Amino acid sequence: MADPNTSAAAPRSKRTDARRNERVLLDAAAAVFVTHGVDAPVRLIAAEAGVGMGTIYRHFPTRPAVYRHQVEALAEAGPAPLQEAAEPSAALRRWVAGFVDFLVTKHGLAGAMGADADGADALHRYFLDQLVPVCDALLLAALGDTGTNQISGFMLMRGIGNLCIGAGNDARYDAGRLVDLLVTGLLTTEQRSGRSRSEGDAAH
Predict the structure, then answer these.
(1) What is the reported pLDDT for 135?
(2) Helical residues (DSSP H) of the chain, grouped into ranges
(3) Contact, 157 vs 99, CB < 8 A?
(4) Closest among 69, 78, 79 to 96, alpha carbons compared
(5) What pTM was computed for the model?
(6) Contacts for 39 with CB less than 8 Å, ≥ 6 apart
């Protein structure tokens, strides 16, 4: 007679293995998209994942799935910098750097999805729902309540997105450098404003 515990464990083990294998393929596809764009050949994903072409074709990581996976990874990466960085401003910079890396490949996704406007819209809503709260929290930590009244996570992400358009198509253009200057200007302006407000309060 089969051991019921063993029978129950086997499907769970298979599901765990399947999820692990799916994550490996998604990680591989995401890495390839960063270096070669969203139209990268499938063989590059297979090589990155260390699997055969047959495995890739059986469990192909679709572009929307990779996009969601990258968004989820960015959302999950939000709290870690705040815990690890000595300064909240450094945590903001670290997360923004990862956001820039993501955006440089993201802009090719709409074209790759073709006429699926509804799918692209759904992914964009998912992107905002997942990442705006993360950016808001990082801004609040770096700037405080007063600073975040001046600029929201959505505003900062939108500005960064505009700076990243076409960045992957021109080696002369360093979007990361420009975004870093933007964040530096934001932090410097708010720090000066905070000092001015403090000095004004002290005078009264």
Answers:
(1) 95
(2) 4-36, 42-49, 53-58, 63-76, 79-84, 88-106, 109-112, 117-150, 153-164, 175-203
(3) yes
(4) 78
(5) 0.74
(6) 108, 112
Instruction: Give me 94's structure tokens.
Output: 């670290």
- Residue in this structure with the two tokens 């298979």, named with its chain if needed: 14
* Distance (Å, whole) CA 123 – CA 65: 10
Q: Picking from 7-11, 80-84, 111-115, which range would have the lowest pLDDT averaged per residue?
A: 7-11
- Burial degree of 117 (CB within 10 A; 0-12, 13-18, 19+): exposed
Dihedral of alpha carbons 94, 97, 98, 99, sign: positive
Spatial separation of the C-alpha atoms in residues 165 and 135, rounded to whole Å: 19
Q: What percent of the chain has pLDDT over 70?
A: 74
Give the lowest-confidence range in 32-36, 80-84, 198-202: 198-202
Amino acid at residue number 146: T
Tokens of 201: 């309060």
At residue 38, the pLDDT reads: 75
CA dist., res. 131 & res. 133, Å (int): 6
CA dihedral of 165, 178, 182, 124, whole degrees rounded to 10: 20
Cα angle 140, 144, 148; round to 5: 60
Candidates 124, 125, 127; CA nearest to 113 is 124
The residue among 107, 106, 77, 75 whose CA lies nearest residue 94 is 77
Average pLDDT for residues 124-153, to the nearest whole number?
86
